[in-house]
Task: structure prediction
Amino acid sequence: MFSELKAQPADPILGLSIKYREDSNPNKIDMGPGIYKDERGHTPILGCVKAAEQQRFEAEQSKAYLGSSGSALFNEKITQLNLGEHRVIHENRVRTVSTPGGTGALRIAGELINASRPGATIWVSNPTWANHAGVFTAAGLQVKTYPYYDYDNKCLDFAGMRNALSAVSKNDAVLLHACCHNPSGMDLSQEQWQEVAALANRLGFLPVVDMAYQGFGSGVDEDAYGLRLLADSVEELLYCSSCSKNFGLYRDRIGALSIIADSPRATDILYSVLLPVIRVNYSMPPAHGAAIVEAILTSAELTGQWQQELRLMRERIAGMRQLLVDKLQAAGVDRDFSFITRQNGMFSFLGIDANQVQQLQDEFSIYMVGSSRINVAAITPTNVDYLAESIATVL
Ligand code: LMR
Result:
């Protein structure tokens, strides 16, 4: 059966952590996967999560199956967190299912599109998260790209994006990052979101929003601006959210897929197609992460604690952006890295070439994605001098 298979390379993001773990250099830095780290370089379990887990340990009554959509209460609460008091909720035009992480939501979204239009095209930003193309291709879709990041000027190529989207067919889907664009950290302004929403409305393509970092940019509601505007502007929309980063539940694999259609009846039909798509895939989502998020979002006290902990993570990352830029300057680098402070969320591109990325790995044990994407949350007051000096050396 398997004798013809060829060995595959390690995953371009997750493979870095394996190499990092095997590295014995005490100064090593893992800037690969998008995982929050505190100023000691640890990925903590949030206090609100610990409290909710304690409650769950005492209160959980059964481990019977929940069904393909997961917990109804989690689905309701996460929809409110994502959409706020949006009219589509009151119009009964949105249904949400819990999924195994944001990736599970993306895969199911892709399969739902494929169930309706086999082999449909989905447009993704250039660049985008390294796994997007693989997930959508595996779901049967054709993946094409639209311009997004201007590598030379370290800013958004909005003119290029708008041009490309203006030619998208109404039978295509367009993937948009709600906030904290992965990998560039460059987000659309509110005015640019308005243009994209107007285009989606006029051309009729299906927006698919990936919101993996809600709360890591400017705030929970601010980061959902584009998503909520699109939900106001189009008749059909899919969006994927993740609790990996903002609740720190990475390994518990909890996210959600929400579907919006133009009437309650149309939404019910779409939902009825979605459930068997899940059933033949992973049958039903894991329950633990959903129960934790549900406990937090149904308690005013835990919600307040969560917002506070999320704010601290967001502010620490923003602080490290500025610190890195300052330290690069102090290390004698004359290239302008100030763009790092104008980007959002966990990621930025350093804008160095593949050889320099490799040199940082081989000579300094600093691990980043080959595109020079760094996880800014991996920077600490302790490692920033070593990082800046190492970058200065390879430059
Ligand atoms: C990342 O982009 O680093 C994260 O989303 C983790 C992953 O699964 O790739």
Remarks:
- The chain has two domains: 12-46+302-394, 65-298.
